[in-house]
Design goal:
The chain has helices spanning 5-9, 25-29, 48-57, 78-97, 110-130; strands at residues 12-17, 33-39, 67-72. By secondary structure, it is α+β, with helices and mostly antiparallel strands. It starts with a helix and ends in a 6-residue tail after the last helix.
Length: 136
């Protein structure tokens, strides 16, 4: 499924507060810390199967109400922190929804089998030739 930023933005809520990061006195005056909340239970973007996979993979990030929370306070700007938190959310969702391809079991090729048997035969011949006949 292709997640678009515009679709997700409709279902997000932001909460801002004062950050403890870099910025000196600026930090004490401006609310730059951004707390992004995404309610997975009420989301209409995902199917029930996708929601269950998200709840399973992101269990440690989702609270009891089914809200996925991303907190960002790296930048001095509130707008930059909002952008960064949305990007983090998109990466989280895409990695959680990624399904690896199933591995198909395969047999070794005939040439590989023959090569292995040939090398075993050569090794055994070497060992036979190393033996000394002391009884002559």
């Amino acid at each position: 499924m292709a997640l678009s930023k515009q679709d997700i933005l409709k279902e997000l809520t932001f909460k801002t507060s004062r950050s403890g990061g870099k910025g000196g006195q600026h930090v004490n005056k401006v609310s730059t810390k951004v707390e992004l909340n995404f309610n997975l239970r009420l989301s209409s973007l995902f199917t029930e199967e996708e929601k269950s996979r998200l709840f399973q993979k992101l269990a440690n990030r989702i609270n009891s109400e089914g809200i996925l929370q991303v907190i960002t306070e790296e930048e001095r700007s509130q707008l930059q922190n909002k952008e960064r938190s949305v990007q983090k959310l998109l990466v989280l969702l895409k990695t959680a929804l990624f399904l690896p391809k199933m591995r198909k079991a395969s047999k070794p090729k005939r040439s590989a089998i023959e090569k292995r048997l040939k090398s075993k035969q050569i090794t055994s011949l070497k060992k036979i030739n190393r033996k000394n006949d002391w009884n002559d």
